[in-house]
Design a protein that fits this description.
By secondary structure, this protein is α+β, with helices and mostly antiparallel strands. It has three domains: 35 residues, no CATH class; 44 residues; 70 residues, Arc Repressor Mutant, subunit A (Orthogonal Bundle). Helix 3 packs across helix 4. Keywords: Coiled coil.
Length: 170
């Protein structure tokens, strides 16, 4: 039994699925050497694990950097879409609702009134149109809206089904 611990060596595979040519030789003095591998001769098992963990961390950092770039691109695209939506909505409020709107009086509420009727499923009252236009529900606003609705009836764009109930002309 004249062998010291430094001379006793053991050869093993580092993973069960690893081929024979990538065996790791570990001696009991704590030194590790990979046969046919990349690691330096004389490195310890801890060094091997540190190298592997460092390589994994570097790879993950690279993936994070790439994902951060892609995230910035997606967020910029979302900002551009929000600006586009805001612009299109603002322009749509200025455009006439239909071809008959060329006969509309010059007031920004008229196209919006027609848009409210286009979205409605039935007749609307002046109060309903005020709510659709986001006007404060004060008597003066309701009466002003009623006057606009009556003017649209005279132009043949709306019809008054019964007193106070207005609908699109069929």
């Amino acid at each position: 039994m004249g062998h010291s611990l430094q001379h006793k060596k053991e050869t093993l595979r580092t993973r069960p699925d690893q081929p024979d040519h990538l065996r790791t030789t570990i001696d009991y003095a704590g030194r590790c050497r990979i046969t046919n591998g990349v690691h330096d001769p004389g490195s310890s098992p801890l060094d091997v694990q540190e190298d592997a963990a460092r390589a994994l961390a570097d790879d993950l950092r690279g993936q994070i950097t790439e994902l951060q770039g892609r995230l910035r691109e997606a967020e910029t695209h979302l900002e551009h879409l929000a600006i586009t939506r805001k612009t299109v909505t603002a322009l749509a409020d200025r455009l006439p609702a239909q071809a008959a709107s060329a006969d509309l009086p010059e007031h920004p509420d008229y196209p919006r009134i027609l848009a409210a009727f286009n979205q409605a499923t039935g007749p609307l009252r002046a109060r309903d149109v005020c709510e659709a236009l986001d006007h404060e529900l004060l008597p003066k606003n309701i009466e002003g809206t009623r006057a606009k609705l009556k003017r649209l009836v005279k132009l043949g764009i709306l019809t008054e089904i019964d007193t106070g109930n207005f609908a699109r002309q069929q």
